[in-house]
């Protein structure tokens, strides 16, 4: 037994020696590696403190329309010139062991790995202040392992060549606080109109919470989220022994007065458009906020600066200066989806909320072209007759719905589809909607790119579900271009400051609508400017027809709170909305006409000097002259004839017989002519 025990002890001792040898070698290698990295870092010297590269935005003609101005929004100050509260708040929430580690917090990294594994996704960060400063200096847009390795080397270089206070000073001068603001001094100026040395505990805690998500935690974006984040920072300061519980609670309840960066704002071209471009860079192209703001990007946009200037001028000329009504305008090329002009409100500095891309408003009758496209799909033609009269519809659930026409005007007779869209007859629209099935309109709207949630109700035919102006412009572009899918395009190309192409827009020719039906729908939309369709009321474009010098298709829409005009030529689609931001109705007669007047003035001036383009029918479409009131083929007796287009095989075959008086008059004239002829022949 003793022999066996001795043998076991010998084996154990042998394994222990091997383990100790392995541990020694591993420790030696680790020590040598760390020593080598430190020697390398010392040999390399201090890393270059890279100056942020401004991201520059260009119009389609190469004109610079915007730039991040670091001279005005970035100030480097000494650590001694910063409020101690700002320093402590930052350390408490970002890196509590900053003065104890050598660039990497191994315990924090291990904790983050465990948390991420438990959640099966990235839920916890472990970057130290030094690592974040290294990232700010590195200024790379690439998210690769090579970048992370280089950042780690930068971190080691920083720790090996700079004092902790120098690193902290650099970090606080380069960190991003949102709204194009970098560094604690610029942030203090922008948010509170004061120097960083004068920040209170409450102000410092508010600012320290922003860098985690500048567009999410900014108090100018969402005060509730910002206040929650401020409390987290204050709690961290208590845990770090920088504050007492009582001091933290007092700071949390301290009223804050924001300056909104008024004195730091600079005038830019098309600010609403530029905001939309930045949003596209982030959401569609995947650039992070730091890269967008300080990555040295060169962004080549679709903006036509002449059209943009015309849009802004026409809005200013049309809307009374004392009116509080708001406006949105989007102008797009229908074939490419390129956005040529965009206005999201009357004054960006007073309200940066972009009503063209963010607001959802009831489109009213501008929704009807979608309905009538579906109707054409299901057997309707421009000549389809339905009665226009006061009607109460009884629905499947037993409830009733009674739509009303504008000013309670009704034909009290049958009218054609062509008349219904030109006169914007609501009864005709609801009848059509219910006959087709309410799901059909929802389906086509989604196919056309309407992103809002749509209620499957009878009133949807009259545009009662709120939508975005941008979505409506896109939907009309698809109809205007013959049914090809388009997305709003703001950016043609993005390069870095060295000229390397990071993104380039690709064309898309996917056909999503029947081109013949899209054309017939387009021609139906020319009816709002055609007085031959007047019957019991004027066509809805009557008030602006005198200013039109070329063919247009379009549709207006009005609700109690919204006024729309969307129309196009083959070259340009423009959507205009006017209304109030809050629950206020449009009661003044002149305000009800603002959208139409802005639209026609913008279109006429934007297209002046360009070739007059007509709507050319594609294959599968035939044009015939019809009597506009009966929808039947016109005869010589018809006093008015209108060229109407139909999908081949659906054109009318019956001739109009509704004008006996005209026939009688012509017969008498013919008889008189014959009698005179005989008389002259006799002589």
Automatic annotation (TrEMBL):
Any Gene Ontology CC annotation: plasma membrane
Alphabetic keyword roster: Carboxypeptidase, Cell membrane, Cell shape, Cell wall biogenesis/degradation, Glycosyltransferase, Hydrolase, Membrane, Multifunctional enzyme, Peptidoglycan synthesis, Protease, Transferase
GO biological process: cell wall organization; peptidoglycan biosynthetic process; proteolysis; regulation of cell shape
Keyword Membrane attributed: yes
GO terms for MF: penicillin binding; peptidoglycan glycosyltransferase activity; serine-type D-Ala-D-Ala carboxypeptidase activity
Every Penicillin-binding protein transpeptidase domain range: 328-580
Residue ranges annotated for the Glycosyl transferase family domain, each copy included: 64-237
Reaction(s) catalysed by this chain's protein: [GlcNAc-(1->4)-Mur2Ac(oyl-L-Ala-gamma-D-Glu-L-Lys-D-Ala-D-Ala)](n)-di-trans,octa-cis-undecaprenyl diphosphate + beta-D-GlcNAc-(1->4)-Mur2Ac(oyl-L-Ala-gamma-D-Glu-L-Lys-D-Ala-D-Ala)-di-trans,octa-cis-undecaprenyl diphosphate = [GlcNAc-(1->4)-Mur2Ac(oyl-L-Ala-gamma-D-Glu-L-Lys-D-Ala-D-Ala)](n+1)-di-trans,octa-cis-undecaprenyl diphosphate + di-trans,octa-cis-undecaprenyl diphosphate + H(+); Preferential cleavage: (Ac)2-L-Lys-D-Ala-|-D-Ala. Also transpeptidation of peptidyl-alanyl moieties that are N-acyl substituents of D-alanine
Compartmental location: Cell membrane
Similarity remark: In the C-terminal section; belongs to the transpeptidase family. In the N-terminal section; belongs to the glycosyltransferase 51 family.
PANTHER family xref list: BINDING PROTEIN TRANSPEPTIDASE, PUTATIVE-RELATED (PTHR32282), PENICILLIN-BINDING PROTEIN 1B (PTHR32282:SF11)
NCBIfam families: PBP_1a_fam
Name listed for the protein in its UniProt record: Monofunctional biosynthetic peptidoglycan transglycosylase
Organism: Anoxybacillus kestanbolensis
């Amino acid at each position: 037994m003793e022999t066996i025990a001795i043998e076991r002890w010998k084996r154990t001792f042998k394994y222990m020696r091997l383990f100790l040898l392995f541990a020694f070698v591993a420790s030696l290698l680790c020590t040598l590696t760390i020593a080598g990295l430190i020697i390398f870092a010392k040999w390399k010297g201090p890393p270059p403190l890279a100056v942020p590269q401004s991201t520059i935005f260009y119009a389609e003609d190469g004109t610079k329309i915007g730039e991040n101005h670091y001279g005005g929004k970035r100030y480097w100050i000494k650590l001694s010139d910063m409020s101690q509260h700002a320093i402590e708040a930052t350390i408490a929430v970002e890196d509590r062991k900053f003065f104890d580690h050598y660039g990497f917090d191994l315990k924090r990294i291990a904790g983050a790995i465990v948390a991420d594994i438990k959640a099966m996704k990235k839920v916890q960060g472990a970057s130290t202040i030094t690592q974040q400063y290294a990232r700010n200096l590195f200024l790379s847009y690439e998210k690769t392992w090579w970048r992370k390795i280089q950042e780690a080397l930068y971190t080691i270089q920083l720790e090996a060549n700079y004092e902790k206070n120098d690193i902290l000073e650099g970090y606080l001068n380069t960190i991003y606080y949102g709204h194009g603001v970098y560094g604690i001094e610029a942030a203090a100026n922008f948010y509170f109109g004061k120097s960083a040395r004068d920040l209170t505990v409450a102000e410092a805690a508010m600012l320290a919470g922003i860098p985690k998500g500048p567009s999410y935690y900014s108090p100018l974006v969402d005060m509730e989220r910002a206040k929650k984040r401020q409390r987290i920072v204050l709690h961290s300061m208590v845990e770090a022994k920088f504050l007492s519980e009582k001091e933290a609670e007092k700071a949390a309840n301290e009223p804050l007065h924001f300056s909104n960066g008024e004195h730091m704002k600079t005038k830019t071209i098309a600010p609403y458009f530029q905001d939309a471009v930045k949003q596209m860079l982030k959401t569609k192209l995947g650039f992070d906020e730091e890269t967008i703001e300080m990555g040295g990007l060169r962004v080549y946009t679709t903006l036509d600066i002449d059209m943009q200037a015309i849009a802004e001028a026409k809005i200013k000329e049309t809307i009374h200066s004392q009116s509080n009504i708001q406006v949105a305008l989007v102008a797009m090329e229908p074939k490419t989806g390129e956005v040529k002009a965009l206005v999201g409100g009357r004054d960006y500095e007073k309200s940066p909320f972009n009503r063209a891309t963010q607001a959802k408003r009831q489109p009213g009758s501008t929704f009807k072209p979608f309905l009538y496209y579906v109707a054409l799909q299901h057997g309707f033609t421009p000549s389809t007759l339905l009665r226009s009269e006061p009607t109460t519809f009884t629905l499947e659930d037993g409830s009733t719905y009674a739509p009303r026409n504008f000013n309670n005007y009704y034909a009290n007779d049958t009218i054609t589809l062509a008349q219904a869209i030109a006169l914007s007859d609501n009864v005709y629209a609801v009848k059509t909607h219910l006959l087709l099935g309410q799901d059909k309109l929802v389906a086509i709207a989604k196919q056309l790119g309407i992103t809002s949630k749509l209620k499957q109700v009878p009133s949807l035919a009259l545009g009662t579900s709120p939508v975005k102006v941008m979505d409506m412009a896109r939907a009309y572009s698809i109809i205007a271009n013959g049914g090809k899918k388009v997305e709003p395009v703001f950016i043609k190309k993005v390069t870095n400051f060295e000229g390397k192409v990071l993104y380039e827009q690709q064309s898309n020719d996917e056909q999503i609508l029947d081109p013949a039906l899209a054309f017939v729908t387009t021609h139906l939309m020319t009816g709002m400017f055609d007085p031959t369709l007047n019957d019991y009321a004027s066509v809805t474009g009557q008030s602006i027809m005198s200013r039109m010098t070329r063919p247009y298709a379009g549709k207006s829409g009005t609700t109690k709170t919204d006024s729309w005009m969307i129309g196009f030529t083959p070259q340009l689609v423009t959507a205009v909305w006017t209304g109030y931001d809050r629950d206020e109705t449009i009661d003044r007669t002149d305000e009800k006409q603002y959208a139409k007047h802005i639209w026609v003035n913008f279109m006429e001036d934007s297209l002046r000097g360009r070739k007059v383009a007509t709507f050319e029918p594609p294959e599968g479409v035939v044009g015939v002259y019809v009597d506009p009131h009966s929808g039947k083929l016109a005869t010589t007796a018809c006093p008015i004839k209108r060229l109407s287009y139909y999908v081949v095989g659906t054109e009318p075959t019956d001739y109009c017989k509704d004008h006996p008086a005209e026939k009688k008059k012509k017969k008498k004239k013919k008889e008189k002519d014959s009698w005179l002829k005989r008389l002259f022949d006799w002589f």
